[in-house]
């Protein structure tokens, strides 16, 4: 035992400090160091543990409930500020092909172009159908209406009237023109198409916050 102890080297103070520094420089010690999030979570956990401990049980009551409510409310407000109100993606809404009884994925601009082409050919029936679809598609692209699948022209007109009350009568007449041609087979006229096109143009330039009360 005496010879074994004699073979053991006992470092002096400087050498022992150097050995300790070399050992602590090993990356595994750095990985084990708690992050700022770990420290924050620990502090919050200690705070809640102290708040509801047996020593504080007599005084917790309403004060603890108020504190916890403030924390939860603050977290919700922060989430709303950072991420905003959840909304359905506009790209999903616009990409929906089914509109007014037809699978048509053309944009509002494309529908207006095709409607004008039909009008120049004096195909007022086709022009009327395409122009009302352009009216609905344009408002859908601007996220101003949200028609349910299979919505009728009258249902769309009601949604538009809720957004732009001053256009209630013209948009209802536009819906009637569409229904007359599409379902009742009544021939369209140049005058009714012109009125529908004018309504579409006004709606495309209106903004909800600019409409007078």
Reported CATH architecture of the largest domain? Up-down Bundle
Q: Helical segment tally? A: 11
Structure summary, number of beta strands: 2
Question: Based on the structure, what is the oligomeric state of the protein chains?
Answer: single chain
Q: Low-confidence parts lasting 5 or more residues at pLDDT below 50?
A: 85-95
Q: Number of folding domains?
A: 2
Return Rg in Å: 36 Å
Mean pLDDT: 76
Structural class: mainly alpha
Question: What is the C-level CATH assignment of the largest domain?
Answer: Mainly Alpha
Distance between the termini: 101 Å
Coarse morphology: elongated
**How are the strands of the biggest sheet laid out side by side?**
1-2
Proportion in helices:
55-70%
CATH fold title of the largest domain: Four Helix Bundle (Hemerythrin (Met), subunit A)
Give the strand content.
Answer: under 5%
Query: How many strands, which pairing sense, and closed or not: the largest β-sheet?
Result: 2 strands, antiparallel
Which sequence of SSEs, written as H and E, runs from N to C? HHHHHHEEHHHHH
InterPro entries: TgpA-like_C
Protein name: Protein-glutamine gamma-glutamyltransferase-like C-terminal domain-containing protein
Domain Protein-glutamine gamma-glutamyltransferase-like C-terminal: 131-200
Pfam family, one: DUF4129
